[in-house]
Amino acid sequence: MDKYIKTPLLNINNLEAGDYVYITGVIYSARDAAHKRMYEALMSGEDLPFSIKDNIIYYMGPSPARKDQIIGSAGPTTASRMDKYTPRLLDMGLSGMIGKGTRGSEVIESMIKNKAVYFAATGGAGALLSKCIKESKVIAYDDLGTEAIHELYVENFPLIVAIDSKGKNLYELHAQIS
Amino acid sequence: MRNISIEEIISNIKDMCIEANYKLASDVDASIRDAYDKEISPLGKRVLGQLLDNLDIAENDLIPICQDTGMVIVFVAIGQEVHIEGGFLEEAINEGIRRGYQEGYLRKSIVSDPLIRNNTQDNTPGIIHYDIVPGNQLEITISPKGFGSENMSRIYMLKPSDEDQGIKKTVLETVKLAGPNACPPIVVGIGIGGSFEKCALLAKRALTRDISIRSDKPHIRKLEEELLSAINDMGIGPAGLGGRTTALGVNIETYPTHIAGLPVAVNIGCHVNRHVTRVI
Ligand code: SF4
């Protein structure tokens, strides 16, 4: 079913694995190196560079923008590389993640406990996805280049609910059918 | 002897890096279109439709097809009557990559040390494989390789008694493990024979072959066809969300091997399977 939702993500119980979703609002990009830094910041008692509660992290590192562009190609990277750091962020209120590929069992358990959703964006469709990004600015870890944290304003960003807050996993469902 | 200047090599490499990242090789493009027509899963068809739109946007609006513009794999076949003038070949190739990634607004994804992990900021070095061949030309193939799919690749040192059944089992196992991470529909490059490193190189080379062209060895051609249909029966589908289009092509390259061995390498390529060849 097609659903149109806004960030911050407040009502996620009605999102079900398999739903086709268009998101509008602010989301934050972070991938490997930014996750490592956020994790280290938390370990040493520092704050995160943005408020994570009810927000969405997009696992993405864009290609450079041309002068007349807001951002370059901007598709998802493999989510499971962030699994090690994710339960901690979910405990702090992170409510949505966007990436590609399935998640580990610890992440899924933490998603159920904390009521969070994992969305799949289509891997390798970075040009198409970049068209839905209307604003982009680097808000932290500038020195990480493409891996810096970007605050993005997206409009009708096309996603599929891959794992919902009850733990229903679209990837697993297909594994069973085949 | 024929002289080829490094300037000519630099500018060709630069253009090839840009071309590969903005316009998909025609064999892969055609096969995604074909898959879109045939896909029966509604979600799978929707994903394939996105990929087709993505290719149009990339070309028309000058946005790279994928943000992971890859590590540049370069195959160079050097005619033994060629003389390179004006500098070193390897430096010229890396300079071409440097300029292509800078001028083409491509992502710089290379770290200088695998553990310290500082970005080299210019996407160099590439990974360069040289062959010395007869003639007075230089044939260059470049293939920017994304690591979502590279990470899902495997090598198996099988036993001769494993035969083609053992090969099939390992390939299907690799594809299953790759699942959605490799951005299906995938292209599967397989190297069989040689040694530990040779089979990996064959698998990489296989990914640069046109996927509409089958092996000229009948038993290998049969294996390619059987594997493609077995992979597409797995149901992984576009983006790993279910469907019949899991692989666009299976290419196998082989080489003689030792009486005691059957090395098999499976190199997974995503649907953004970029490759450009030029002869200078
Ligand atoms: S695996 Fe391929 S399509 Fe997927 S993100 Fe990497 S380069 Fe892009």
What does it look like?
- The complex is a heterodimer of chains A (178) and B (280).
- Chain A is α/β, with parallel strands linked by helices and 178 residues long.
- Chain A has a single domain, classed as Alpha-Beta Barrel (fumarase).
- In chain A, 23% of the residues lie in helices and 28% in strands.
- Chain A contains 5 helices and 7 strands.
- Chain A is globular.
- Chain A starts with a strand and ends with a helix.
- In chain A, 47% of the residues are buried.
- Chain B is an alpha/beta fold.
- Chain B has 2 domains: 2-20 and 65-145, Dihydrodipicolinate Reductase, domain 2 (2-Layer Sandwich); 148-274, no CATH class.
- Helix content of chain B is 40%, strand content 25%.
- A 4-stranded mixed sheet of chain B has the order 4-2-5-10.
- In chain B, helix 1 packs across helix 4 (89-103).
- The longest helix of chain B has 20 residues, at 42-61.
- Chains A and B meet through helix 4, strand 7 and helix 5 of A and helix 3 of B.
- The complex binds iron/sulfur cluster (SF4).
Provide keyphrases for this structure.
heterodimer; A: 178 residues; alpha/beta; fumarase; five-stranded mixed beta barrel; 7 strands; globular; B: 280 residues; Dihydrodipicolinate Reductase, domain 2; 2 domains; four-stranded mixed β-sheet; 8 helices; 10 strands; binds iron/sulfur cluster
